[in-house]
Amino acid sequence: MAERRLVVIGGDAAGMSAASRARRLKDAGQLTITAFERGRFASYSACGIPYWAGGVVDGPDALVARTPEAHRERGIDLRMRTEVTEIDLAGQRVRARDLTSGQEQWHGFDDLVVATGARPARPPLEGIDAPGVYGVQTLDDGQALLDGLEQSAGRRAVVIGAGYIGVEMAEALSRRGYEVTVVERAGQPMSTLDPDMGALVREAMSGMGIDVVTGTAVTGIVTGDGGRVAAVATEDREYPADVVVLGLGVRPETRLADAAGLPLGESGGLLTDLAMRVRGHGNVWAGGDCVEVLDLVSGRTRHIALGTHANKHGQVIGTNIGGGYATFPGVVGTAVSKVCDLEIARTGLLEAEAAAVGLRVVTATIESTSRAGYYPGAHPMTVKMLAERGTGRLLGVQIVGREGAAKRVDVAAVALTARMTVDRMTALDLGYAPPFSPVWDPVLVAARKAAAAVAP
Amino acid sequence: MAERRLVVIGGDAAGMSAASRARRLKDAGQLTITAFERGRFASYSACGIPYWAGGVVDGPDALVARTPEAHRERGIDLRMRTEVTEIDLAGQRVRARDLTSGQEQWHGFDDLVVATGARPARPPLEGIDAPGVYGVQTLDDGQALLDGLEQSAGRRAVVIGAGYIGVEMAEALSRRGYEVTVVERAGQPMSTLDPDMGALVREAMSGMGIDVVTGTAVTGIVTGDGGRVAAVATEDREYPADVVVLGLGVRPETRLADAAGLPLGESGGLLTDLAMRVRGHGNVWAGGDCVEVLDLVSGRTRHIALGTHANKHGQVIGTNIGGGYATFPGVVGTAVSKVCDLEIARTGLLEAEAAAVGLRVVTATIESTSRAGYYPGAHPMTVKMLAERGTGRLLGVQIVGREGAAKRVDVAAVALTARMTVDRMTALDLGYAPPFSPVWDPVLVAARKAAAAVAP
Are residues B370 and B395 in the same domain? Predict the structure, then answer.
């Protein structure tokens, strides 16, 4: 049998996981693998960028899981600084441009993996591309930011957007000694939480000396000397800024796929089947931040840019291309984050998300501690739980607390996957010892209150 | 309707939870509640004793969740230092002796809750009751130990038994500046783990300067001046000891129940139905360390003395007595513990436990870290996973690591409850961010390896 040709577009988590996994299952005589990455880094942890920016971890090398050389040694022809500019599905080929030389070339494929990732949302504001305004999506972005911070003399930073990236970057800049203002259009930071839980984040951030301005839309970037950023303008006023970081979230980077006619969902992400094949295309696969995933709680597809999903997608794609069988069943919407010592977590649906898909909920919010109350380091935490009215099925959990709070959300993530009721959860046999939990784990306390709300 | 009379034997977690819950549902005009506790403390955290002994937490008051006075203020007639000496089921009454005055009295009941707890195993060795030999089951025991430590001039401690209590007490005594030797009959410490995982605990304890002697049976306690403990004798040698702590685990305290003819299981614990009624007795309830619980993984009953179960049992009993409806479906065998900064966790079955109930297993052991490898404080951890041959159903997980290791077992506890396969677990949507987890959570890494072992 002739060797098959696998082409991968995008050299980060999903793409290189797929390539690596396929290579483990098929040797070079059976499968050639060519991967194109337009940036200068491959197989890296974009999630680590805020910690690099904050000086908590070294970068960029420490954030690279596997170097291009290491990939090439394993028989993957990884072309760096090479951008795919066109997908020709009918011709089973892609056109790639060497960004250094400018040369373009067509490459044929039998299997194609689209792993083009996401791009930071950049609203069409005046000045948005001015020097001193940074995105933080790629290691190249991170390097540009760090270079910029070194050159900047001033110490005022404005972060636009108070989602995960926004609050993590607020911490990073605060660690670097910046006076940080976060400007958010919504009424509370962390719109991935219900507003009542977001309010707890706001309060904690204010306590850390981070200025959180909410309910305020940015109207433009004001530039000064040499066209460099000078301030962020809102409807109400201007916030002086020596550095501006965009933390507005990301959109699926699917312009190439769209141009080729591949199917996109409501969020603009590629639509795949459970094996991560692009719908309607037997030999085109997609994974990572450029796809939509099935939300197992709502039954809808949604776009969630997260390294852990990208790695799983890559594993599934590589297994299938390598002749095995694997599927990605979907997500339940788990996310964890921190701002300084504040831990933030969610899984499942928010109240508004549940309402949007026709689910009626009861909610319960409780306060407890991470350890037995008498044990040193017992930190308070707030747990909010959503259950379906009538059935009592768990629909979501949100947690805001300190050390030991965030990863407790995993219990709810598994319970959501198993479609447990909150009543069933009250009896869960979770680990108990005074250094690790009160005798009733906070998740169980929330489950008890939610169960009582379901069936008073 | 005349008021009913509830009598509770045992004033700790299960008993007082039941009493408190029943009181919340029925007022004093509907239900009188009398509780008898033979000790000087009620509603306390026995699990906190090792931390009190180690000086990590204050005691004994800090370990008391609710004082006798607070219970009485809520309409529960709690009689301290009063021991029930007989249960007369036919006559629906118990005989109680005031340990101060020696007076005995019969008390009638309509509902009886047996919550007599557990007693530490005390092998019939010469010298086992000598001054300087301590159990650590009750707050009274803890107070006796602390008083003893203050009087003891020497600095050599021997802990007999290397289970949870044993290793926690080894840490406590080590913190107090004792030279600690732990003597264990089995081949490794923590026989609640498979031997290969127990070996990791042994290695870590040795690194902390705690001498762990295994495969060695204690043959007697050697006494010296004034009959006080002087050494612990084994088959091979004597270990000089100024203080000896018994960490041999506990047995259900069911002598009273047995004398009354209530049904006991193979471990000597009371057998109940799902509502926590003693089997065959409509108005006698039992919970906490004196009962056997259904192990949902093996399908057998077993004895597990753990405060979190006792509290759940009390909640169920009190709800049912109070006219509501609740059940305790069973456990999956979760336990977490620590020795200094070492975290130890298990859930489900060990290899030997699986074999004993006819289950054939495949196992997978992996090493990973608590956070992204590049993030500060990323500690190594070892995760062992057991799955059923053929079906791939998860059967158990054991974890040994440092900070952030133990509570990860909760993910497996929920997965066991939901009877998930390890293959299904590989796709679990667990919280990921660099400060909290590698991009593949260690539990997922173990699940991947276990799934590959099930279906190579």
Answer: yes
**Residue B225: pLDDT band by 50, 70, 90 thresholds?**
confident
User: Could you give the C-alpha distances from B364 to A79, B342, B353, in angstroms and in order?
Assistant: 36, 21, 17
Q: What is the mean pLDDT of residues B81-104?
A: 98
- Please report whether residue B295 resides in a domain: yes
My answer on whether B392 and B431 are in the same domain is yes
Same domain, A274 and A377: no
List beta partners, residue A251: A119
- Give how many domains chain A has, as a whole number: 3
Long-range contacts of B195-204 (CB under 8 A, 24+ apart): B196/B365, B196/B384, B197/B346, B197/B382, B197/B384, B197/B398, B197/B400, B200/B382, B200/B400, B201/B167, B201/B339, B201/B342, B201/B344, B201/B400, B204/B339, B204/B342, B204/B400
Residues across chain A: 456
Tell me the three state secondary structure of residue B117: coil
For chain B, count helices (H), then strands (E): 12, 25
Residue B186 forms contact with A (CB below 8 Å) = no
Q: How confident is the model over A172-223, as pLDDT tens digits?
A: 999 999 999 999 999 999 999 999 999 999 999 999 999 999 999 999 999 9
**CATH number of the CATH domain containing A158:** 3.50.50.60
B111 and B255 housed in the same domain: yes
The two structure tokens encoding residue B445? 């890494």
Active site residues of B: 47
The residue type at B436? F
- What band does B404 get if pLDDT is binned at 50, 70 and 90? very high
CB B309 within 8 A of CB B291: no
ipTM of the complex: 0.96
Query: d(Cα B421, Cα B416) in Å, to the nearest integer?
Result: 9
- DSSP element (H, E) containing B206: helix B195-207
CB-based contact B385:B363 (threshold 8 Å)? yes
B338 touches chain A (CB under 8 A): yes
Peptide bond into B263 cis (omega under 30): no
Q: Which of residues 3-42 of A touch B (CB under 8 A)?
A: 13
Contacts of A2 (CB under 8 A, 6+ apart): none
Structural domain boundaries, residue B100: 4-119+251-321
In a domain, A333, yes or no: no
Helix (H) or strand (E) holding B319: helix B307-321
Distance from CA of A240 to the nearest CA of B (A): 31
Give the C-alpha separation, A21 to B106, whole Å. Answer: 74
Among A124, A130, A142, CA closest to A64: A142
> What are the tokens at B84?
């029930």
Over residues B236-255, mean pLDDT:
95
- From chain A residues 250-289, the ones with a CB under 8 A of any chain B CB are none
Nearest to B180 by CA among B149, B151, B150: B149
Looking at the structure, tell me whether residues B87 and B164 fall in a common domain. no
Of B331, B406, B434, the CB nearest to A48: B434
Average pLDDT over residues B53-74: 94
Residue among A424, A429, A436 minimizing CB distance to B332: A429
Q: Are residues A352 and A374 in the same domain?
A: yes
B261 and B297, same structural domain? yes
Domain co-membership, B127 together with B216: yes
